[in-house]
Specification:
single chain; 905 residues; alpha+beta; 18 helices; globular
Length: 905
């Protein structure tokens, strides 16, 4: 066995971890005997090769786990280490990988600073210092730095990194929560993040200058006051530069009493309505460039409450660049069409008269007379716009602390002003695209392409948001609805794991889970809060990382206990905390599914999932206690409670809920759930509460109703993934194909026909469906966003059923399910994904009366082939095989490696 692609805390070579017991993981390739391994940690690569170790783990079996947690003596702050994988005898079977330990709360010498009086102008915090010579050289220099809400750091006038919109978004600290639209959780955890940069090459002996430019971001967000006050305070910064010299001496430069503050040229910067920049003001990042009275002492703040952690997850990046696909001019305005709806920042060079103002307005759509149509991205309120005050020369602008969601940019130019250069940069959190899908149905390829742009456009600060413009918040319902599709298309290990922590931080001490994380109000209901169980379990099944289950188990139980206080006495969930309590959401035309029905489904589902998590953690504890798969030295504590002690009451509660659910909502005469409401059958069938014969009758009844409605899609954000699961598991991918490929309204094809380059919030183009509040009170639909990822759940089905690459058990069970839908209208498909255990792929093609399926299973995993019954003459790797029949499917097994299967049609 050979170990490759080593990661510490799910990322490659993090610089300054604040996890005291880091998690190590890697991928393995075959070629050697056995799968036993150990983890070795050393001060440096030379010590590692000499056998000098800070810690060496017990023996693990890679077939059991690719994860090991550090279990040695405390690692020193502000220190670098290396680690590697060895075989059972201690021989290296990997190249070494580095990781650094950062600063913990007691290690910081720096103090938080802010300006004495907030002016609205983005401040620059400055600190000059000298490095003495005397024959010594700079051996190393690390800058630990953050600024809330967002920051950019400079050393001697040079930017220290290309990071965008750091630090990542979190619930930073204490803030007033008055006048909220929704119940505010109490007793929540507070976390702020910092970054660490090696700036040795930017320093010099003699005089040096540090500067941190800080924008408002979510920390000083004063917009959208109709939903409550969410401001934490004015912009603030914290930085500490630790320098080592060749003679062993050291020097530390910190923010604090010696820090000064100055105004930048950014007169306004807000999340929703953009920036105003004055090019008559020059940004200076060195105190020596300022005159008397141009700077003022920064005010030192008390230490912030909560945790201050290193942001190990990838920051936002500026990736793909879009040049205008078309320019539509009308007098003194020009509408730039970048051809792709996306989240981005504008880069423009403009020339005009001194003090002339140029305004850019951003929108997803355009009006009939070629102006920016801001309705879907603002509801006419907080319009995305940036304004430039020109210097009289050629001014270059690039959005600094605001990212917009748009396809079109309308430029209003005063007389004589002209745009010399313009492009848009696609900005999003740095999730690598490690999955690919393609098939013979061009519509499905386009839907997946649109979803990828939508998903990334709604991933900022390692928070999956609902839309990149008018709301921009981490709505939990939207997030868990497309969680699997995101993991198929991108490497979400770090970013999603951080979001799971946001959920844990946001949960109230009462067990109440708000509808957004980090908490930022917003409507929802139990289907949103239930993400605290749904998302971490999906994460575990996909990535095999048990840590989020262990860390979140107590909160999961508390959520179940909270829901147990929300029912009517007969276990039907009829209420929630103050706020907008919805059930299913965004069915086409009308959202009419009874709200308590959907809410009670989630109550039962969460009890069912909590039972599953308790079983997983109980097995994990038994292995650890027995010393199996490595000693307990490198294992984290599982939870504050014993998982298996929770099983009896969870099982009893599940029976009570499902008995009440069936009694209230199922009609054995008509075989309908909830009176046949839109998608109701899929909610009921997913719980598995009907016996086999009745479940078959219920499904057949729903299939007949689907045919009667001409295969129109009728499910919303929660019902759609349930429909995909239920019908695919029943071998009815043919029905799903007809629903999802159907032309016209409502459907995915309708979006494409109307020119969509991202997925919409619903299937309506402009105004969303009407909906019913609890009690049946009708509400009129509202304007829909054209960049919402929640309906992207269908893309997981493309991978798992059209191409046949099923990975929803690879992390938990090391199983790749090879289950392509062959026999319909599609003649070929392929999918590939770089999993936590290595590359997996499936490619198939149908020619004449034969289908050929090529697939690869990662090392130490196994393949389960599953085809709809009826195929003949199975030949696997040149050898005839007799498949086993299980229900509607024929199955066979395959080991790791590459394989080819041919079957007769």
């Amino acid at each position: 066995m050979k170990a490759l692609r080593l990661k510490t805390e799910r990322v490659a070579e993090p610089a300054a971890l604040t996890e005291r017991s880091p998690l190590f993981s890697f991928e393995a390739e075959g070629g050697g005997a056995g799968t036993a391994y150990k983890i070795a940690v050393a001060p440096d690569a030379a010590a590692l090769s000499r056998g000098e170790r800070v810690w060496e783990s017990g023996v693990y079996d890679y077939r059991e786990t690719a994860y090991a947690r550090y279990g040695g003596k405390p690692l020193a702050p502000d220190t670098e280490y290396v680690w590697a994988v060895t075989d059972a005898e201690g021989k290296l079977i990997s190249e070494p990988a580095r990781f650094g330990i950062g600063l913990f709360r007691g290690d910081w010498r720096a103090r938080w600073v802010t300006r004495e009086r907030e002016s609205g102008v983005a401040p620059i915090f400055l600190r000059n210092f000298a490095l003495a010579g005397g024959g010594k050289e700079i051996a190393g220099a690390k800058l630990y730095v953050t600024g809330l809400g967002y920051f950019k750091a400079y050393c001697n006038g040079e930017s220290v990194s290309e990071d965008e919109f750091v630090p990542q978004v979190s619930d930073y600290g204490a803030r007033p929560l008055d006048g909220l639209f929704e119940t505010a959780p109490i007793g929540t955890k507070k976390t702020a993040y910092y970054r660490c940069y090696d700036i040795k090459n930017l320093l010099r002996l003699g005089d040096n200058a540090l500067a941190v430019w800080v924008g408002n971001g979510w920390y000083n967000n004063r917009e959208k006051p109709n939903e409550g006050n969410f401001c934490y305070g004015g912009p603030k910064a914290l930085f500490e530069l630790r320098i080592r010299f060749s003679d062993g001496s050291a020097q530390t430069v910190c923010s604090g009493e010696d820090t000064r503050a100055a105004d930048s040229n950014l007169l306004k910067n807000t999340l929703y309505t953009g920036e105003v920049v004055d090019f008559n003001v020059r940004n200076r990042f060195d105190l020596r460039e300022y005159g008397d009275g141009e700077t003022a002492p920064a005010r030192v703040l008390p230490d912030a409450e909560g945790e201050l952690l290193y942001q190990k997850e990838a920051p936002d990046v500026a990736g793909e660049r879009f040049a205008p696909a078309a320019v539509l001019r009308d007098g003194d305005t020009a509408l730039y069409d970048f051809g792709q709806n996306h989240s981005g920042v504008l880069r423009v060079k403009v020339r005009g008269a001194k003090n002339a103002r140029v305004k850019f307005v951003y929108a997803e759509n355009k009006t009939a007379d070629n102006r920016a149509d801001v309705w879907s991205s603002s509801w006419g309120g907080h319009v995305q716009a940036d304004e430039l005050i020109l210097s009289g020369g050629a001014d270059e602008y690039r959005s600094v602390f605001t990212v917009h969601g748009y396809r079109y940019c309308e430029a209003a130019l005063p007389d004589g002003a002209e745009i010399l250069e313009i492009e848009s940069l696609f900005v999003h959190s740095g999730a690598a695209g490690d999955g690919a899908f393609e098939c013979g149905e061009l519509l499905f390829n386009r839907i997946n392409r649109n979803y990828r742009y939508t998903c990334l456009s709604n991933f900022h600060g390692n928070v999956p948001t609902d839309c990149p413009h008018r709301e921009r918040r981490g709505f939990l319902g939207d997030g868990h609805a497309h969680f699997s599709a995101a993991m198929y298309n991108f490497d979400m290990r770090g970013g999603f794991c951080k979001w799971l922590k946001d959920m844990r931080d946001a949960q109230s001490e009462t067990g109440y889970m708000p509808h957004t994380a980090p908490f930022a109000a917003g409507g929802g209901g139990p289907g949103f809060g239930s993400a605290c169980l749904i998302a971490p379990l999906k994460y575990y099944r996909f990535y095999g990382d048990v840590s989020p289950l262990a860390e979140g188990f107590c909160g999961m139980l508390n959520w179940v206990k909270y829901l147990n206080t929300r029912h009517d006495g007969d276990y039907i969930v009829v209420r929630e905390e103050k706020g907008w309590c919805i059930g299913e959401w965004f069915n086409p035309t009308l959202i009419d599914l009874d709200i308590p029905f959907a809410n009670t489904y989630f109550f039962a589902l969460c009890v069912k999932l909590a039972t599953e998590v308790a079983g997983i953690l109980g097995e994990y504890e038994r292995k650890s206690a027995a010393g199996a798969d490595g000693a307990r030295d490198g294992r984290p504590p599982v939870a504050e409670v014993s998982p298996e002690r929770e099983l009896p009451w969870l099982s009893a509660l599940y029976r009570r809920i499902t008995d009440a659910f069936l009694k209230r909502y199922y009609d054995y005469g008509t075989h309908l759930f909830c009176g046949g409401g839109k998608g109701a059958a899929f909610f009921g069938l997913d719980l598995g509460v009907l016996d086999e014969a009745e479940a078959r009758e219920c499904l057949e009844t729903e299939l007949a109703r689907i045919a009667e409605r001409d295969y129109r899609i009728e499910t919303g954000i929660f019902g759609t993934p349930l429909m995909l699961k239920i019908l695919s598991d029943a071998g009815r991918d043919d029905v799903l194909y007809r629903i999802l490929s159907r032309k016209g309204y409502p459907g995915y094809a309708y979006m494409i026909e109307r020119g969509a380059t991202t997925l919409w919030e619903g299937f309506e183009e402009r105004v969303g469906p009407d909906y019913l509040l609890r009690g049946g009170t009708p509400q009129t639909g509202y304007g829909v966003s054209h960049s919402h990822p929640m309906l992207g759940s269908v893309c997981a089905w493309f991978y798992a059923s059209i191409a046949g690459l099923g990975l929803d058990r690879i992390g938990s069970d090391r199983v790749v399910t090879v289950a392509p839908w062959i026999g319909g209208e599609i003649e070929r498909a392929r999918a590939e994904k770089h999993t936590v255990y290595g590359p997996a792929r499936v490619a198939w093609e149908r020619k004449g009366h034969t289908a050929k399926i090529s697939f690869a299973v990662p090392f130490s995993c196994r393949g389960e082939i599953r085809l709809k019954s009826g195929f003949r003459d199975w030949v696997l790797d040149g050898v005839p095989v007799r498949p086993e029949t299980r229900g509607a499917f024929d199955t066979a097994a395959a080991g790791s490696g590459g394989h080819t299967l041919t079957v007769g049609l």
